Every structure is written in structure tokens, then in C-alpha cells.
Amino acid sequence: MSVGAQDQGTGSRDHGVPIPAPAPARSLLLGVPKLGRRWPGVVRAGVAVGLPALAGVALGHSAVAATATLGAFAVVYGEGRAYRVRWRVVSIAAAVMVLLAGVGAAVGAFVHDATAAGGSALWGMALVLAMTVVVAVCAFVVDGLRLGAPGAFLPLLTVEISSALPALGVSVAEVTAWAAAGAVSALIVSMSGLIVRPRTPERAAVATAVAAVDTALSDGSSPGSRRDAVRSLHAAWQCLHDAALVGGDHPLTRTLRAAHLRCAATVDGVDADHASDVDDLRPQVPLPRPSIRYRLGRASHLRGRSWTIVARLLVACPAAGLLALGFGVGRPDWAVITAAMILHQGPDRVLGTYRGLHRFFGTVLGLVVLAVLSSLDLSAAVLVLVVAGLMAGIEAFLVRNYGLAMVFITPLALVLGSRGTHVDLMTVSRDRLVETVLGVAVALVVLWTVLPGSYRRILSDADEQVAATIGRLGDAREPAAVAELCRDLEFDLHASTTAAITAAHTDPAWTRDRWREHHHLHELGYRILTRHFGPRL
């Protein structure tokens, strides 16, 4: 769900129906939401980086050991997942990181060799195009599967960092091997608690949901706290689904069921005409995710949001890279990753604009951190610990406040991309600031001008998909087919809610005109789900 949706909207003169408005600018720019107990994941991120890198330093590979960070990025993707599925998620992410580290290094070596032989600086466009393809594919998959943050960011960051290493004398094989070492570390660290406390992820998810509900139900609770409670409840149920605990009488299921009922009873009938997370909280257990095949098939609709994201990336990334080369910076990759990270998380113009501000100011503060690090004479082992600390900071803030995360991302990328050697701080800072300004500017222009009416197509497509799934449910007779279609319908209702929030942020007048139709379709969808599954809580 969109993080900027509020439960308080503005009234319509024609219908008197409120629609969602973005959260206040102060909240979006400076807010750091509480997302439960974060420190275990923060520690895991740091340890997954530190273990293989320190081992490499001890074995005499000080110059390249920190490259293991590229594979260790995979540890982030396991957070919040039950151990029953975590190993698979982290393994897939780790394989992707290792593959992309090799791809980035290979492209970087090609570009370096071509330019070193006297070739044009435009050979740098090979890296730009490689990064564009990577982020477009990853963004499509992440958005289609609704995986959420960190999304396509870390895969693209892996390509960006690894592409800089061949120019420093690191071979493609070395980059790939150290990334693989980090990937193994990520998997081991991610699964380290399985033997001692096998239910820790589920307990943490339920505890976070219960605490969020308690906050939402307290006196004077804000609409934002209700939204956070509903989001936490959905995340906890999915964690229990992953752990195969839903449907039984496990204590965690009973605890979450009680919190869900308390929250549902309170929000029932409150702000009923909003498109918010509250719309998707009914007195039934949320169903598990549909199959990967269904979700990717759903994303393949050309009218949907996933292709809109891809189209904007395909315009913005090459444009940002070409502009950076035109301004004479040494490498265009930072401009590309800047534009991509503003656009890859969705088509919402308001939230994308705030993300651009986060990117700029976070980069500036990150360069200050880099200046401090560059002034110190750090040993290889201490540098590894610094990189591990930066990785922990990324894990702590990437989902909560992108601007703060950039304070850690910027020095991490530059330290790894320079193999920890001292850099020409003035040149690096100048180039990074120029590239950041170019990337932000290009991203915002593309966000507001490329496919400007996409929010209408996205909402129409989402509502049409809800209606189509309802129609298929009406024709289904086999219990297994009905159950599968109900999972699909709930997923489609969530997608429709997200599309409605984006439309309301972008064009309130147009959204008001079709609000009743959208709301009635949602009510029909949830009545059908209730009829098939009943009040299962």
C-alpha cells in the first residue's frame, strides 16, 4: 500500500465522498516510522558483511575482501520471512546478486578497456544501457510480485559498484568470487536462529502487529497509526501463512486473531469511502499470496502499473546517463541509479517527488560522511567494520526513511567502488553532486511528463481485473478453483486500492468522479469473499 495515504480526505462538492490525500510533507520527508523490532535484522546485515570480509583480510586479501558486501546484500531480502521460506528467498536473492556482480564487472571491464585504448567517452553508455536493462527487469518482477522495499535497488547498486572495480585492477573472477562468499554468508547468517529459536520471525511479526494495534486503539490515535496497524496485521498474517500456522490453533495464531478482531471492530465503518489500508481489513483472515505465475501474469497487462514503471525507467535511465557524460563526469552510473531509484517504486507523482528530495539531501549528507572517513587512516580490518556498519545503517533506514538510508548508501558505494583507497574528495563530491542533480531532474521530468495519464489506465485496469475475477468466481464450481480465485480476488482488491490512492494523489477531481463506482466494486468483492469464507475469525 502507498505509504503516503491518509485516512482523512477532502470532500467532494458533487458527492460528499472523501478521497485520500498524501500525508503531510513533514511526515513524508522527516518521518521515521516504527516498524517493530529492527535491531536483529540490523545486526544480521552487519554480520553478513563483516564475516567474509574480515576472513578475507586475515587471509591477505585486504584490497578486495569488502567486495563480499555485494553478495551479502541478499540478507536484507529474508527479513520478516518465516524460516520455512526464508532460505529460499535469500538463496534466490543471493544468486541474483552474484550474477549481477559478474555482469557489472564484465561490462565495467569492457568500458574501461575501450576508453583506456583511446575510445570515446560514449563507451560509458554500454554501462548505462546494462544498468537500464537490469533495473527495468528487476523493477517489473518486484512490482509484479508486490515484494516491496528494497525492491530493485540493491541489485542495481550491485551492478553499479562492481562495474567500478575492473578499473582498479580487480578481475571479473575476483568480483564474482567475493560476491559469492558474501552470498554464502548472507544465507548462513539469515538462517542462524533456526535451530535455537525457530519461531522468532513469526513471534516478531505478531508482536509488531499487536503493538501497532494497541497504538491505533489508544486514545487520540491518528489515522496514520490505524494505517500502520492494518499494514502490520497483513504482514503478520502473511508470515504465519509462510510458516504454515494459519488454520491451526497455534498460540501465535490465536494472539494475532484477537488483535485483528479488536482492530477490525474499531475501524469497521470508519472512513468507509476511503481507499486506504483500512478498506482491506475485514473480520476474516487475509488469504495467502496468489501464485507467482498469477502475479506476474497480472503485471504483464500493458495497462497496468508495472509496465508504466518500466516505460519510465527506459526513458529516464539512458537520458540521465547521456546527460552525465555530456557534463564530463568520470562515470555516468550515479546519475542512472539516482533516476532509477526515484522511479522504480511506483508511479505516484507526489511520493516520487519526495523521494527525489530524499535522494538529493541524503547524498549530500552521505558525502559529508565520506569526507570524514577519507580523513582517517583506516586499516583494512577497520574499514571492513565501517562497511559493515554502513550496511547495518542501510538495513535500519531503507524502508523507513530513504533520505537517511542515502546517508549510509553514498559512502558505502564510494568506499567499495574505490577498494577503500583514498579518493580525490573534491572530484568525487563534485561528480556525485552533478550526477545527483541530473538524475533527480530527469526522474522528476519523466515522472510528470511521460505517460501523464497512466494513473487513469492503472486504476481502470485494476478495477476491471477485480470485476473479471468476480465474474470467474461466479462461474467456478470446484472448491479448489473457488479457493484459488478468492486468493486472486483479494490480491486484485489490494492492487485496486493502491491504484486508487495513486490516482487520488495525482488527480483528485477525476478520482472523485469515479469514486462511488470504485468503492461499490470493492464492497461487492469483499462481500463475495465473506460469502465463500465467512467470518473465519
Automatic annotation (TrEMBL):
Membrane topology: Multi-pass membrane protein
Transmembrane intervals: 53-77, 89-110, 122-142, 149-169, 175-196, 309-329, 360-390, 402-421, 433-451
Region Disordered, annotated ranges: 1-20
Keywords (A to Z) from UniProt: Membrane, Transmembrane, Transmembrane helix
InterPro entries associated with the record: Memb_transporter_dom
Annotated ranges, domain Integral membrane bound transporter: 320-446
A Pfam short name: FUSC_2
Subcellular location: Membrane
GO cellular component: membrane
Composition skew (Polar residues), residue ranges: 1-11
Chief location bin: membrane
Protein name as annotated: Fusaric acid resistance protein-like
Native source species: Rhodococcus koreensis
